[in-house]
Specification:
Helix 1 runs antiparallel to helix 3. Helix content is 38%, strand content 37%. The termini are close together. By secondary structure, it is an alpha+beta fold. It contains three helices and four strands. It has one domain: Alpha-Beta Plaits (2-Layer Sandwich).
């Protein structure tokens, strides 16, 4: 299992377009083979911060995600163009 969290900050004026891109990206990503979970969130006390929890069956599925047309459209050509800040946290499950 491969899990990670992506934390991104956007300008307040981009909030509506960011939300729409996240909805489209999440819907398409959840249909990918090997995608276990793809859940975007906004931070309650800072709605300009988005946190996406992603989980894939293996590293190959996570890599595949980054090559899909929807990732290129909504993340690379969309969200990444509006970013103010971005952090990636790779997670290890405690079992």
């Amino acid at each position: 299992m491969v899990s990670f969290i992506v934390r991104m900050r956007f300008a307040p004026e981009d909030r509506e377009s960011v939300s729409e891109m996240l909805r489209e990206l999440a819907l398409a990503s959840r249909k990918e083979p090997g995608c276990v979970s793809y859940v975007p969130h906004t931070v309650e006390d800072d709605p300009n911060v988005v946190v996406i929890y992603e989980q894939y069956s293996d590293r190959a599925a996570a890599e595949l995600h980054r090559t899909t047309p929807h990732f290129k459209k909504f993340a690379v050509a969309g969200l990444y163009q509006l970013l103010r800040e971005r952090e990636l946290e790779n997670l290890t499950a405690v079992v």
